[in-house]
Automatic annotation (TrEMBL):
PANTHER family: PROTEIN RDS1. InterPro entries: Ferritin-like_SF (IPR009078), Rds1 (IPR039254). It comes from the Eukaryota. This is Ferritin-like domain-containing protein. SUPFAM superfamilies: Ferritin-like. Pfam families: Ferritin_2 (PF13668). Keywords: Signal. Residues 1-25 form the signal peptide.
């Protein structure tokens, strides 16, 4: 029997679901784990919709006309299959607590802008799974989350190196992001969700806009956000997340701030009140992604 691509996808998803059902036993999850997995499923729904829409819109010829080979489009089809498998397994583990897909608005208008956005999604997905890993209490589910994390990280490296011509990694560590941080980076692409979906256990922050999303190390950029927090009695800073390090730069009243001179690759920035470790208590904005050119680019 010849297996078509769609049948192979269905077969692999069913097998993976059966594996989790037997290996994990569809565990009785704590409410905390349910909330974390609901957010993970929200991200997988978003990625599934993102890749499905772009691959339906752009053909091999469209990719080649944009300077991207049909082989690259084929790899994106494989990534889509991965995201569907992740989506299916999370739905199995969550059962009746699984959240449904939302409606989305992705701002790509060409294969090249789609590819650039895919690099952001894969990097944010990797960072979100790292950040959530220490919060899961069920160790079997943690193992499965780690298996998803490994694939997300490989996809991010491939997109950055093979498609975007950047370094495949920053340094020795990827950057963990909190659920609130990851939500602030992805929620702008969600236009509407079913009323039946339970509210995600996240705190929303004003979006952060940068004058330059690919600044040079040590350069000056302008950041802007809806500054409605009047309770910050301290100086305001931009906090830059790179691997396991956080560096602060003074935020001037006109929105000017300096990119740390040793920052490279994919990093994240947020506006905070004071110099304490960034958290929900002192964050004044959501996060933004920056792509810092490196010597390997």
């Amino acid at each position: 029997m010849v297996l078509t691509p769609h049948f192979r996808l269905f077969f692999s998803a069913v097998c993976a679901a059966a594996f989790i059902a037997s290996a994990v036993g569809v565990p009785t999850l704590s409410q905390s784990d349910i909330s974390l997995l609901q957010f993970a499923l929200t991200l997988e729904h978003l990625e599934n919709a993102f890749y499905t829409g772009a691959l339906q819109k752009y053909s091999d010829n469209d990719f080649e006309a944009a300077g991207l080979s049909s082989e690259i489009r084929g790899r994106y089809e494989q990534i889509l299959e991965h995201e569907r498998e992740h989506e299916n397994i999370l739905e199995v583990v969550l059962g009746v607590d699984a959240v449904a897909r939302c409606e989305y608005d992705f701002p790509y208008n060409s294969p090249l802008s789609f590819a650039a956005l895919s690099g952001i999604f894969e990097s944010v997905g990797t960072s979100a799974y790292i950040g959530a890993s220490g919060l899961l209490s069920d160790k079997d589910v943690l193992t499965y989350g780690a298996a998803i994390l490994g694939v997300e990280a490989r996809q991010a490296s491939w997109v950055n190196a093979a498609v975007l011509g950047r370094a495949p990694w920053n340094e020795g560590f990827d950057t963990p992001l909190s659920i609130d941080a990851a939500y602030s980076l992805t929620s702008t692409f969600i236009s509407n969700c079913p009323s039946s979906n339970p509210p995600l256990q996240v705190q929303a922050f004003p979006p952060l806009t940068l004058s330059d999303a690919s600044p040079s190390p040590g350069s000056s950029i302008t950041v802007s956000y809806n500054d409605s927090n009047e309770s910050c009695g301290l100086a305001r800073y931009t906090a830059w997340f790179d691997g396991l390090q956080v560096e602060h730069s003074v935020l001037q009243e006109d929105g000017q701030t300096t990119v740390p001179p040793d920052l490279l690759g994919t990093a994240y920035v947020v506006v905070v009140c004071g110099l304490d470790t960034p958290s929900d208590k002192n964050m004044l904005s959501g996060f933004a992604v920056v792509q810092i050119p490196s010597d390997m680019d």
